[in-house]
Amino acid sequence: MKRRIFLQSGAVLAAWPLIAACSRQSIPDSQTKMKIDPVTVTPLDKPHEAWRSLLPPEAYRVLFEEDTEQPGSSPLNDEYREGIYLCAACYLPLFESQHKYASGTGWPSFTQPIAGHVATKRDYKLIMPRTEYHCARCGGHQGHVFNDGPPPRGERWCNNGLALKFVPRGETIPELRG
C-alpha cells in the first residue's frame, strides 16, 4: 500500500511541469467569481430553472448545467456567412462573424467576443485551471477561452454551438428575451 502511494506521488511530481505548462495555456483570471468587461450589460435576475421551458433540453444542459456538446456535432462549425452569433437563451449578441475561424477543435471558435458581453471565471473541473465564459446577461455557459488562437490576439474562444443562435446579415435580430 505504501509503495503504491509512493509511486502515485512520484507520478504526480513527474507530471508537475506539464500540469504547470498547461495551466498557463488559459488566459489569466485572478478571480474565481465572474468578471465582466467594462461595457455595461445589465444581468438578468432570472433563475436558471426559468429558462428550461424556453430552450430545447440539450441547449438547457449546455447553458445552465455547464454540459459540453460532442465535438463536430454543431452545424455552426461550418457557418461562415456574415452575421452575428447570439446567446441561445437571452439573444444577447456575443460574437461577430468576422471573428470566427476554423480552429479544427470541433467547436465553433472565435478570436474575440463583443466587448463586455461575456463574463469569465476560473474552472477547475479538469484539475488544470481554465477560463470559462458565460453570457454576461443571463449567465448561460458558452465555453472556454484559451491562448492558442491566431494572431494578433492569440485567443481561441471555443464555444458550444448549442449555446449560440446565428443570425445572417440582413435578417432581423430577435429582441432580447428574459
TrEMBL record:
Any one GO MF annotation of this record: peptide-methionine (R)-S-oxide reductase activity
PROSITE patterns in the record: MSRB, PROKAR_LIPOPROTEIN
Reactions the enzyme catalyzes: L-methionyl-[protein] + [thioredoxin]-disulfide + H2O = L-methionyl-(R)-S-oxide-[protein] + [thioredoxin]-dithiol
Domain annotation MsrB: ranges: 48-169
Class in the EC hierarchy, top level: oxidoreductase
GO biological process: protein repair; response to oxidative stress
GO cellular component, one term: cytoplasm
Signal peptide, first to last residue: 1-20
EC numbers for this chain: 1.8.4.12
Keyword line: Oxidoreductase, Signal
The protein's name: peptide-methionine (R)-S-oxide reductase
Organism lineage string: Bacteria, Pseudomonadati, Pseudomonadota, Betaproteobacteria, Nitrosomonadales
